[in-house]
């Protein structure tokens, strides 16, 4: 897998309702100012080291146009900043599933969104490294 390419392929999207439901029930979670992040290590063989789904609650952002704008910005920031996480996952030979639930009730600009995505990626990477040392 070429890690230098900044892409967001179909295989990187988490689409399984069963897996998403399991993450909400038994996944590890943490909160950032912008996101509720649910994640867990996936034992199944996948084509991608990490699969992600982005959720923008309708209760917080009423207009679909704004929800779609936020979702596009989050996916773009993730696409540009995921390389360090992918390198670690490839080296360890594991995969993870991630659910991002947006928590704010306004539309942030792209720079804020990118900083929030970088923050959650650093925290997941730290949690994975901490878990790897305990095993």
Overview of the molecule:
- The chain is of the alpha+beta class and 135 residues long.
- The chain has one domain (10-134): 2-Layer Sandwich (Ribosomal Protein S5, domain 2).
- 47% of the residues lie in helices and 19% in strands.
- The protein has four helices and four strands.
- It has helices at 17-26, 64-81, 83-92, 110-134; strands at 28-31, 35-42, 50-55, 95-102.
- The protein has a four-stranded mixed beta sheet, with helices on both faces.
- The longest helix is centred in the last third of the chain and has 25 residues, at 110-134.
- It starts with 16 loop residues before the first helix and ends with a helix.
